[in-house]
Amino acid sequence: MSEDTARRPLIAGNWKMNTSLDSARSLVDGVASAAASHAAVDVIVFPPTAFLQSVATVAAGRIAVGAQNLHDQPKGAFTGEHAVSMLVDVGATYALCGHSERRHVFGESAEWVGDKVAAAQAGGLTPVLCVGETLAQREDGDTMKVVRAQLEAGCRHLDADGVGAIVIAYEPVWAIGTGRTASPAQAQQVHAAIRGWLTDRIGAAAAQRVRIQYGGSVKPANAAELLAQADIDGALVGGASLTVEAFSGILSAAASERAPSA
Question: Greatest CA span in the chain, whole angstroms?
């Protein structure tokens, strides 16, 4: 990859349904302070929606803040949901779309994920489109069939420029919160295939600029080896994002393994 297409590492922390208001404020302050030591790495945190505005206020532009979920409609009788404009108003600049827990726990269809991706982008948020297979699908040899279908549905409303402006996160469902991690070779194989899908969809030059994160039990002990892979441009971190020490270790790995050359 040439210097002009070098992709900055992107490390994101998905806090899921964790933290209190006080601990969320403390955590984001610590993460932002740690990020200041790694200027070549882009950082996002995804706090619970209830704390998003407070977290964004503490982050104060030092790192990005995103929403864990959104609704594709701009307003209406959708109790408990949040429109893109509401999330932007309280400081979000990114949004997770199609996280495996939204797909498998809450039953979100691939088509609805595509609606959310389009709504997020149209409303000013950068979508992080999450894709990945279950253990049964991997064992059946269907990993890329599943991932490609999720990519197609997730990007179904986007033109080439729109696809080129999203972030993709590959998160094998069998590795999320289980302590199991895809080997660097397994992860790279899928990331390279995703890059190939992007090349077919938007051309080689644009595909080289899209950042593809890996998610699934990423921690300081395995981050460097994963991030050293050619097509792994960052990490979507779950449990290890809930302490400054662990998350800082992943930032350090990203800075050393994938920082662009000077």
Answer: 51
- Number of domains, the chain: 1
- SS3 category, 4: helix
- In this structure, the strands spanning 94-97 and 126-131 are parallel
CATH code of 161's domain: 3.20.20.70
Sequence-distant (≥ 6) Cβ neighbours of residue 71 within 8 angstroms? 78, 81, 82, 83, 84, 116, 119
18 CB neighbour count, 10 Å cutoff: 15
- The whole-model pTM stands at 0.95
Q: From start to end of the chain, where are the E strands?
A: 10-14, 42-46, 64-67, 94-97, 126-131, 167-170, 212-215, 234-237
Q: For the segment 120-148, what is each residue's pLDDT rounded down to a tens digit?
A: 999 999 999 999 999 999 999 999 999 99
pLDDT (0 to 100) of residue 181:
76
With a CB cutoff of 8 Å and minimum separation 6, the contacts of 58 are 25, 28, 29, 32
* Domain of 208, in residue numbers: 3-258
Q: Among residues 38, 101, 171, 191, which one is catalytic?
A: 171
pLDDT of residue 2: 39
- Residues found in the chain: 262
Which residues touch 129 (CB under 8 Å, ≥6 apart)? 97, 98, 113, 117, 150, 151, 154, 155, 166, 167, 168, 169
Cα 230 versus chain centre, distance: 18
Tokens (6 digits) for 223: 């981050």
Question: Is 171 noted as a catalytic residue in this protein?
Answer: yes
Kindly name the residue from 99, 101, 108, 133 that is annotated as catalytic.
99
Beta strands in 105-242, from DSSP E residues, in sequence order: 126-131, 167-170, 212-215, 234-237
* Angstrom distance (rounded) from CA 214 to CA 123: 26
pLDDT of the residue at 3: 38
